[in-house]
Specification:
This protein is α/β, with parallel strands linked by helices and 968 residues long. It contains 20 helices and 40 strands.
Length: 968
């Protein structure tokens, strides 16, 4: 809590920010005031303490303009002093008779604050920041910086603190709890288009690469985010981490643990370090001695550093191990390799090899080898990978939970590969990260979490969320926490509380739209192999025009964002551009590039003159992305980020200028109309003359439908609409179509005044359009049914031959046993889903329908049909993977308590089904059900496998049209 005293003095009240205080009273400690200016002293034997002390001094200077003096030891300091050191340091030992630090003994990466009055003759007040170990001390220092208002992203996103001349804090004794996850960090990957060229050309030209200067900034960021692990950049564009001795020294100075990716055993970067010309093939079967020598050299070189060693073997660069023909045959081979690697570690690092941190990441084919029966030493940490799109492939079963080495997760927020890259913007939904990582934690994957962050920028919030969760998972157990609190608090810590909620809402809206379809996937193309872009799956002619609804959502986000941008503090303009403006605007432009292109193509088939406008709008959207990216790279923050942002990584087709077919308009008529739904299979109009019809209106669904009036000839038309009956309502009844851009067509909305219907009746009428000597008619049909059974009915009612239900909108739930459907907020197409929880249940599950019906929890949905039909039910789920190798992804479906149909939506490998699932963040299963008569019905969905997530249900009674997004 920040308050102003005498309009100048700022008090940071830590009481409201800490979770675990002792019962001591809070005391005020001046950092910068008229009476006191703090000094900072640190343990002379610790390089990291020196680094953090000087960074804290810099942080205080950022806020107040005053830079405190820093010194090793307390001999020459007086007044108010901040003392930095771990509990074993001499500088802290001088105060041990005055404080109790027992709560820190033996803790991993913990810290405490202790405030002493007049502890020595010269020191008036001392604030001790004590760590259980060096990183714990650093976390304490940077925690204080954050509470003073210095963001962990102050350098990486140009977040400037609020300036104050005077600073004091109210503080009392406090001890942090150990991190939830022991090893927490990031993997710099696919750095070819951002971090590497920026470091080489802009930030570190002397090295010409990602070198010690860059890594120092990376490591500082990690410590400010309370992380401890790096998997260094390893692409061909970048020299290996060990190539520059300064990288190793910098990691040691910052006490960052060095690891390596799943494809880099023994801290080797095969891409940069394995020279096939001089060393031969990277083939264990034909070149074992060279490979072992290669590994041994790095192990010897890494003695004495903080490291976690990756075991196993894959190909040179993220490919399958050479020489293996059958994955089952690979089991003894990989077991032998791991045994030999551990023998090397025992020889050079520690005779007790179980004391050496080691991991195996069963990524891609290695997971298949592991599941084929490969034995992994019990002390080795198994790091479970996701499928590259945010869905963890598998987690611990009951036996694996008991392994001494524990387990962790390798998770992607950026990816290069099939079916499509997403290397440009931050497009992984925070709610998905929370759900998947919480599931991992609850099943025992708490030893190591690492996030693939691509170039670091622009994944600032994803990184913060992931590492905050790894440090303290507890608040994330509430699914509302990310949306309601975490994102808002993050926005507030950067831009202030005034605009925090609005910025949070905008970013959440941005992530929601990206969850439905990432900006990088809007071309409906794929890669490896690369395919050209095609038309999107959004329906332009039904459901109120899905494509327009998506365009409008982005436009509203842009409008809100630009309004906030005009109001924020001048100091925040660069940070706002990076963290809010660029991602929202460019995602919007990417969507508009493709959706406007679609409209140009489809509207040309309808002879709409506006097809030319939409072609231009599509091209303009592309050019605007070019301009915004140029600003990012040349002007933003005075050119600081030159070469950092690429709008076309790998130059995939989706990033290129839109390919727009030539527009040819038949101008035989000067104008025409297109009612909603009036299309053939190829999305062209059935007719351009005569009468047309809107879909049926009914009193229960109270539909609104659109009619587009448009020019086909380059001349203005004044139009007028009249209705045959007063129960037909129009949003507009006259207007002028002109040849100006944006005025060549107009959309009017039609609905029914049901008060004009006297009883149970079916009414027909029409709308007549007149203009330029031409007349067109649209037929209208409204049905008002008086059905006593629906009086006060709360269920869903058939709408033009279908029923659409959001999974979380069930009529009732029956809970049996431990597992049941639970609300998960902040996830799914409509922001709330149902998940089968808990994930910690027995491995064995019954499949007998009678047992499921009798013993399993279920949700039930009431729905009503007007006519009899053979229904097809489509259930949309999130494309998670089975919790572990003992489960599938099953749920069971019944209508009216009839026979159960068990559905399993588990996918295998990189099938086309899996590809489509991850591209749209949805799995889709259609179930044919027995014949239904008209009337009331109930749909039951039973829990089976844990973790299954339900999003949306559609019941097709013969009238369902194709929709990409959730049906309103």
């Amino acid at each position: 809590m920040i308050s102003t005293v005498n309009m100048k003095k700022v008090t940071i009240t830590l009481l409201t920010l800490f979770s675990f205080y002792s019962h001591a009273w809070a005391q005020e400690f001046d950092i910068v005031s008229l009476q006191n200016k703090v000094s900072i002293c640190y343990d002379a034997t610790s390089k990291l303490d020196s680094i953090t002390a000087h960074l804290l001094a810099s942080d205080i200077e950022q806020i107040s303009g005053f830079r405190p003096s820093t010194s090793a030891g307390i001999d020459h300091v007086s007044g108010n002093v901040i003392v930095i050191g771990n509990i074993h340091a001499e500088i802290i030992a001088q105060f041990r008779n005055k404080i109790n630090l027992d709560t820190l003994n033996g803790k991993w990466e913990s810290y405490g604050y202790r405030l002493l009055k007049a502890p020595t003759k010269n020191i008036k007040n001392a604030l001790l920041i004590c760590g259980s170990d060096p990183r714990g001390t650093a976390y304490g220092v940077f925690d204080l910086s954050a509470r003073l208002g210095v963001s962990p992203w102050y350098w990486w996103a140009d977040v400037k603190p609020v300036k104050r001349k005077n600073i004091s804090i109210d503080i009392k004794d406090y001890t942090s709890t150990p991190p939830s996850v022991k090893y927490r960090g990031i993997f710099i990957n696919d750095e070819d288009w951002g971090l590497q060229p920026w470091a080489a050309k802009t930030f570190e030209p002397g090295t010409g690469d990602i070198g010690p200067k860059t890594y120092a900034k990376v490591f500082e960021l990690l410590l400010r985010l309370k992380a401890n692990l790096i998997w260094p950049a390893m692409h061909p564009s970048t020299k290996a981490f060990f190539h520059f001795p300064g990288n190793i020294k910098t990691a040691e100075d910052y006490q960052i643990i060095i690891g390596s990716s799943h494809a880099e055993p023994m801290l080797r970067n095969n891409v940069g370090e394995w020279d096939e010309k001089t060393m031969g093939r990277f083939n264990y079967f034909t070149n074992k001695e060279k490979i072992y020598s290669y590994w041994e050299n790095r192990i010897r070189e890494s003695r004495g550093i903080n490291a976690i060693y990756t075991l196993g073997m894959r190909g040179v660069h993220d490919g399958q191990m050479e020489g293996i023909k059958d994955l089952r045959d690979a089991v003894p081979v990989v077991e032998k390799i791991i045994g030999d690697e551990r023998e090397m570690l025992a020889r050079y690092i520690n005779k007790d090899v179980t004391a050496v941190p080691q991991v195996l990441t069963p990524y891609k084919e290695v997971l298949e080898i592991y599941d084929a029966g490969m034995k992994v030493p019990d002390d080795v940490t198994i790091v479970w990978p996701d499928d590259n799109y945010g869905y963890i492939h598998r987690l611990n079963n009951k036996t694996e939970q008991e392994r001494s080495g524990g387990s962790g997760v390798y998770y992607h927020a950026s990816y290069w590969g099939r079916p499509h890259d997403y290397l440009w913007l931050s497009s992984t939904h925070p709610g998905l990260i929370r759900e998947e990582m919480l599931k991992a934690f609850e099943t025992g994957a708490d030893r190591l979490w690492v996030l693939n962050v691509g170039d670091i920028k622009p994944l600032e919030y994803n990184i913060t969320l992931f590492l905050d969760m790894a440090y303290n998972v507890k608040p994330f157990r509430d699914s509302r926490y990310v949306k309601k609190d975490h994102l808002t608090n993050w926005a507030g810590s950067i831009f202030g509380t005034t605009h925090a909620r609005k910025i949070s809402d905008m970013l959440w809206g941005y992530y929601q739209l990206a969850f439905e379809r990432r900006p990088e996937f809007m071309g409906w193309s794929q890669t490896e192999p690369t395919t050209p872009t095609s038309y999107t799956g959004y329906n332009h002619f039904f459901f109120g025009d899905e494509a327009r609804r998506r365009i409008d959502k982005y436009s509203r986000l842009e409008t809100e964002m630009r309004s906030i941008r005009s109001q924020i503090n001048v100091k925040d303009t660069d940070a706002f551009y990076q963290l809010v403006y660029y991602p929202i605007v460019c995602a919007s432009l990417m969507n508009k590039k493709f959706l406007y292109r679609d409209k140009s193509y489809l509207y040309a088939k309808q002879n709409r003159l506006s097809a030319y406008d939409y072609a231009q709008l599509s091209s303009d959207a592309y050019e605007s992305i070019v301009q915004e990216t140029a600003y990012y790279n040349t002007t933003l923050a005075g050119g600081k980020w030159k070469h950092m942002m690429s709008m076309a990584p790998r130059s995939l087709p989706v990033y290129q200028a839109p390919v727009i077919p030539p527009v040819h308009i038949d101008s035989i008529n000067s104008w025409d109309i297109a009612p909603e739904g009036f299309v053939t299979k190829d999305s062209s109009l059935l007719s351009t003359t005569g009468s047309k019809s809107l879909p049926v209106f009914d009193v229960f669904n109270k539909q609104k439908y659109f009619i587009d009036i448009f020019l086909s000839k380059n001349q203005p038309v004044e139009w007028k609409a009249t209705t045959s009956d007063n129960w037909i309502r129009l949003s507009s009844s006259s207007g002028l179509l002109t040849t100006e851009p944006g005025k060549k067509d107009i959309r009017i909305w039609v609905d029914i005044d049901w008060n004009k219907f006297t009883g149970n009746e079916k009414m027909t009428g029409h709308i007549t359009f007149l203009g330029a000597g031409r007349q067109m008619q649209v037929n209208i049909q409204g049905i008002k049914r008086n059905i006593p059974a629906l009086s006060g009915y709360k269920g869903k009612i058939e709408n033009c031959g279908f029923v659409s239900i959001q999974a979380s909108h069930f009529s009732r739930q029956v809970k049996r046993g431990l597992q049941h459907w639970n609300f998960v907020e902040g996830l799914g197409y409509k922001d709330t889903v149902l998940q089968a929880l808990p994930v910690t249940i027995a491995d064995e599950l019954p499949t007998d329908p009678d047992v499921i019906k009798s013993n399993h929890s279920y949700v039930e949905y009431d729905f009503y049909t007007f006519s009899s039909a053979d229904p097809g039910i489509t259930i949309f789920t999130l494309p998670i993977h089975p919790l572990n190798n003992r489960y599938n992804l099953r749920y069971a479906v019944s209508i009216d308590d009839g026979p159960l149909k068990i559905v399993d939506y588990k996918t295998v490998g990189r099938s086309e089904e899996w590809k489509q699932n991850v591209l749209r963040n949805r799995a889709e299963k259609k179930i044919d059900m027995p014949h239904l008569s008209a009337g009331k019905h109930q749909l039951q969905i039973y829990c089976m496998d844990p973790g299954v997530i339900l999003d949306e249900i559609r019941i097709d009674l013969g009238g369902l049209k194709k929709a990409y997004s959730a049906i309103p």
